[in-house]
What we know:
The chain is α+β, with helices and mostly antiparallel strands. It folds into two domains: 1-88; 91-264, Beta Barrel (Thrombin, subunit H). Helix content is 35%, strand content 26%. It has helices at 2-5, 10-88, 254-262; strands at 91-100, 108-111, 124-126, 131-138, 143-147, 154-159, 165-170, 177-178, 193-196, 208-216, 225-230, 239-244. A six-stranded antiparallel beta barrel has the order 1-2-5-4-3-12. The chain has a six-stranded antiparallel barrel with strand order 6-7-8-11-10-9. 25% of the residues are buried.
Amino acid sequence: MIADHNDQLQRVRAALSMLMLPIQTLADLPTRASNWFSDTLTSRAKLLDENRVLRQGNLKLKARLQQFEALQAENMRLRDLLDSSYKIGDRVLIAELVGVDLDPFKQQIMINKGRNSHVFPGQPVLDADAVMGQVTQVNALNAIVVLITDTSHALPIQVLRNGLRGIAMGAGIIDQLRVPFLPNNADIQVGDKLVTSGLGGHFPPGYPVAEVTSVEHQPGEPFAHVTARPLAHLDRVHEVLLVWSQEQKLTDGDDASVTGDATQ
């Protein structure tokens, strides 16, 4: 006790503590390892959960982004259509494409406007750039439109450069028209723009139709071989313009109905 009181055993205690430290560390090692392993598993599970939530959130954001891009593209198409309607100057109605004829020998589409919207057979149909075709059948809520590339369709046209008149006929191919019966010496060139002539009474004059892509003058034949490419985007259109010319009169009350549809 006297030695302990005089701190003579302090060095002994310190030495014993140093000797016991490794033993205590080894004894405590399983507990610490168990705690570390448990914390690691918990952290990993938490990270996996957070990663799963983030992946799901990212997937939802990508889906919304796709919708926004589709809406933006639709908005741009509608703007183009509205701009085109102002340039046309006639009464117009916007309709949406709801069906495509799968018959490879026909070039037809179905739109979501019909007799209830005062659509009529023979009515011109355009996209934002040019003539697409005309209405052939009308039901109450929809209508069938034959495209200008259909083999049964013929459209009176004229060359914008010089006024040369002719007929553009469908070739049965989505990107090709034929211009038959032009004399072999006719003044028509590759790159000439073809517009509606107004003859026939269905299409008002001056609407863009096509651009000439080839002209072949073969000796000994009476007519030139002329082909053209439609200026309308027939293979990827989603909305179309139905046109009433200024001369076409509707029954009483039709003006309000058509105006209401066109603004929707």
